Amino acid sequence: MEKRAEKIRVVLVPLPLQGHITPIMQLGKALNLKGFSITVAQGECNQVSSSQHLSGFQFVTIPETVPVSQYERRPVEFVMKLNKTSEASFKDCIAQLLLQQGSDIACIIYDELMYFCGATAKEFNLPSIIFSTTTATHKFCCSVLSKLNSKKFLIDMQDPEVQDKEVENLHPLRYKDLPTSGMGPLEPYFELLREIIKKRTASAVIINTTSCLENSSLSWLQQELGIPVYPLGPLHILSSVKSSLLKEDKNCIEWLNKQKPKSVIYVSFGSLALMETKDVLEMVCGLFNSNQPFLLVIRPGSILGSEWIESLPEEVSKMVSKRGYIVKWAPQIEVLGHPALGGFWSHCGWNSTLESIVEGVPMICMPFIGEQKLNAKYIESVWRVGIKLEGEMERGGVERAVKRLIVDEESEGLRERAHVLREKLKASVRSGGSSYNALDELVKMLNFVHY
């Protein structure tokens, strides 16, 4: 008689980008702690390895036909090509897993941008769950946009009245706030959204958010999709995982130890944003003129035309040596939790936003593309824990924003609201909290669909 596997297996399929890998690995760790075995089906680029303290995880490779570097230039085209070319190899991968391990796969949980997984799950009669790395509000916005005609939308958006019209059920968002910027031509983007929003045969949707942040959007999304929606965030509190693709420079913690409490402005624009040399110069000058110590992350290759910071004038080095510290990549959660931190100047990616709110750190918002602009709107206007840097990068504007965030009277209210929100988020993952309960419900569902 064949012995049944000791643990039920869950297959995770991340999009091969840092901002998508991190939360799905955190989800994997949370499920592993609940007794599930985890298999991560990942591309050849941007791989997380088993050496990163992930016992109980198995890693398999799906051969890639689209270079990840294409995402920066043409994100929509990259995702659509990846989906068209990955389906066959993923089917082979699942067939191999079933052959090797019998029928212990309870579910395939896939990033919403890896929607080709839905067809494979259906073919092998396996349950599937969609994982969203963005907000419930963003997913609801995608649903709204997916129903629009791109040509008509472009014409309508030339009318200021339409731009300022509030989107139904999404107060305080207006049509001009819908996440369309930075995604290239609208028609292919809307076509992609139509693919993303399809449920296919998925049994549920998991979102890295919490009801205390997005109760209204979660309710509307549940109604729109008609399948269970599990808000499990913030996932980085539920389960800590080392999944950084870039080496973290821990020396910045020693520098932070020498700074006064709540004095430092931390600046990081995530793993994809690119900047011009002149904008980096204006930014550093503004930071220096604010008289606040600053910790600045500049990724290799993030300054256009430079390998790192060699294109910056010598005056930048002098300003940094007097008042700042530059790293190629920082241990962000550790930095945000440091007593010296007074504020976070961010691109407003959803992982960074959650990490900042959980530590009660107010933010300067400088979003680059649509989803980040949506997050910035909520940070500033709904949760009121940050301020938006408007217009072009200019040293005077930077100096004023830093002072507003850390020094001026306004900073007290921002910090107070950030602390209140922090406690709500931490309560959501404790026993009896909304995210804690949602994870329990998900575990019950996974056990049910398997047996």
TrEMBL record:
Annotated PANTHER family: FLAVONOL 3-O-GLUCOSYLTRANSFERASE UGT76E12-RELATED, GLUCOSYL/GLUCURONOSYL TRANSFERASES
Pfam families named in the record: UDPGT (PF00201)
Entry protein name: Glycosyltransferase
Similarity comment: family membership: Belongs to the UDP-glycosyltransferase family.
Residues forming coiled coils: none
Molecular-function annotations in GO: quercetin 3-O-glucosyltransferase activity; quercetin 7-O-glucosyltransferase activity
Superkingdom, natural source: Eukaryota
Keyword tags: Glycosyltransferase, Transferase
